[in-house]
Amino acid sequence: MAARASTRVSIAWSGAEPIEDTDTLVLTIDGYSLDLRVFNSGPDVGKIDWSTVAHVGEVEGSTKENPILKWDHIIDSRPPTDMPDQGKFETLPNGDVIEIGIMHNPKTNLYEDYVETWRRMKLPAAAPYIVLASEDGGTQAYLGRVGEHALGLAKSKDGEYYAWRDKMEDGKWKRIYQFGEDIKSLLPDLPTSIPEEWSKDDNVTLGGDSKWVVKTIGKL
Predict the structure, then answer these.
(1) Which InterPro entries match (predicted)?
(2) How high is the pLDDT of residue 190?
(3) Which CATH class is domain 128-219?
(4) 106 vs 81, 111, 126, CA distance in Å?
């Protein structure tokens, strides 16, 4: 599949019981990953837990049955770590997917084993997908859409992180989350319908005068 939308069901650290304290959406689109995780409980409810844009691909030892994927981050809401962002995947009988690996746990400041459970969202046939990118003065911004799900993620040259998440309802985009002031200057809204004339590597304009490059585009 060229594109998919996923939500996280749970995460278990170092063999502990699985929990889920975020509302997470990941759009995987033709080698790009756009990821926004927002706390939905606990002391940081309503804040970003983690968000990235990355190039994603298979690594040595990966198989069709048990892929091993690595994410090379383009932008990241967290400080960089020495540990590669990499995980091995297994499909469960109910269709969910578990991801197994080692990563930095910000709550303990340790590198720990983890098991994440992911659920693929149902998408209609011929659902559109697209990734657009913009870079201006050291600020990097990305917009992605898969079907009725969309993310806008950006990091300024000063290290400030911006994000929004939208969902299509009754033919219009509904804003689910938004982080950052004056966000439309960096992350304009996506059109409700992707123009038929757009194609990969095109230079397009959004929000009046915002310049973007189409990185990938298509339909499922």
Answers:
(1) Hri1, Hri1_N_sf
(2) 96
(3) mainly beta
(4) 11, 9, 39
Q: Do domains 3-120 and 128-219 have the same CATH topology?
A: yes
| Domain 3-120, CATH homologous superfamily name and number | Protein HRI1, N-terminal domain (2.40.128.320)
Q: Global pTM?
A: 0.95
In the chain, where the domains are located: 3-120, 128-219
pLDDT in tens, 53-69: 999 999 998 998 889 99
pLDDT tens, residue by residue, 112-159: 999 999 999 999 999 999 999 999 888 999 999 999 999 999 999 999
Nearest to 132 by CA among 152, 157, 160: 152
Q: How far is CA 57 from the centre of its chain?
A: 14
Three-state helix/strand/coil letters over the chain:
CCEEEEEEEEEEECCCCCECCEEEEEEEECCEEEEEEEECCCCCCCCEEEEEEEEEEECCCCCCCCCEEEEEEEEECCCCCCCCEEEEEEECCCCCEEEEEEEEECCCCEEEEEEEEEEECCCCCCCEEEEEEEEECCEEEEEEEECCEEEEEEECCCCCEEEEEEEEECCEEEEEEEECCCHHHCCCCCCCCCCCCCCCCCEEEECCCEEEEEEEEEEC
